[in-house]
Amino acid sequence: ESDVTYETTTTVSGGEDLISQLWFMEDATPLDTGQVDLRLGFGWVTASAPANLGDSDDDFVVTPSIVWGAAEGLELSVSVPIWVGDGGDVGVIDDINYDTTVGVLWRIIGQSAKCAQCEKGPFPALALSGSARIPTGCGSSGVDGELRLILTNEYDSGIRSHFNAFAQYVDRDYGDEFGRRGGMRGFGRRDRGTLEPRDFQYGFVVGLDGPLCADGAVRWVLDYMNRKGYHEGTSNMNMLETGWEWTM
Question: Looking at 4-8, 35-39, 154-158, 186-190, which range is the least confident one?
């Protein structure tokens, strides 16, 4: 009879916790118990738009958030995206600005190995995350919700693979709005016109991330998302993104 152990390859606390505001995917790594992160996300979205529609070509969003390791394997978060638009002009998004998103991440099981000699096992960590948009903004209404299944597998090299499957319920009571990315948190350009969002949406994400330095504080990220079109009558969305993340 032998004991099974699992060790991570990085030494930075929270260095493997991907910032979900930045990426399509989430990982199954919650913050350490008692750890609190204060995060400030910034996004810039640009698109061509006819001037007579009254929409700005560039939109900026600042997202302050608090993430707390509430217990072993349990992470809670709250964030408030603030769209500042182009020179303060955010168009119709002003009606729903300052909405609050609350989230929870629960790691059900950690990654396990099949033998004592294996540092990393073939059985990935499994987690569930849920989030809800609460209408605290100007003129906002309805509550949106998301449930996400997360699988994360780390290899001896420090590279990790991820799979996410998510479903969303959208209850916003307006037509012309900002689109959304794979999760409840994200930066998306709104579609022009009066397209209604689908009440039920779903999709999946596959991705990789890995260390760019010995302590894992800087990580590269690559992922691909396929999801149902956000608005009624639109086709499926296929998106690829890449970047890096630095835990300071």
Answer: 4-8
What is the rounded CA–CA span in Å between residue 203 and residue 24? 11
Calpha distance 198→156 (Å, rounded): 42
Residue by residue, what is the 3-state secondary structure of 97-123? CCCEEEEEEEEEECCECCCCCCCCCCE
Contact status, residue 203 vs residue 228, Cβ threshold 8 Å: yes
d(CA 28, CA 13): 15
Which of 140, 86, 77 is closest to 106 using CA atoms?
77
Segment holding 80, helix H or strand E: none
Q: Where are the beta strands (DSSP E) in 135-194?
A: 144-154, 160-169
Closest residue by Cα to residue 159 from 26, 6, 10: 10
User: Which tens digits make up the pLDDT trace of 50-88?
Assistant: 444 555 567 788 899 999 999 999 999 999 988 886 655
Higher pLDDT: 173 or 109? It is: 109
Residue 234's alpha-carbon distances to 201, 210, 228, 229, in angstroms, are 12, 34, 8, 5
Least confident of 13-17, 61-65, 105-109, 214-218: 13-17
Q: Where are the domains of the chain?
A: 36-246
User: Is beta strand 58-71 parallel, antiparallel or unpaired with respect to 74-79?
Assistant: antiparallel
Residue 56 C-alpha from the chain's centroid: 25
Q: Which of 165, 166, 175 is nearest to 142 (CA)?
A: 175
Q: What is the CATH number of domain 36-246?
A: 2.40.160
User: Which of 46-60, 116-130, 194-208 shows the lowest per-residue confidence on average (mean pLDDT)?
Assistant: 46-60
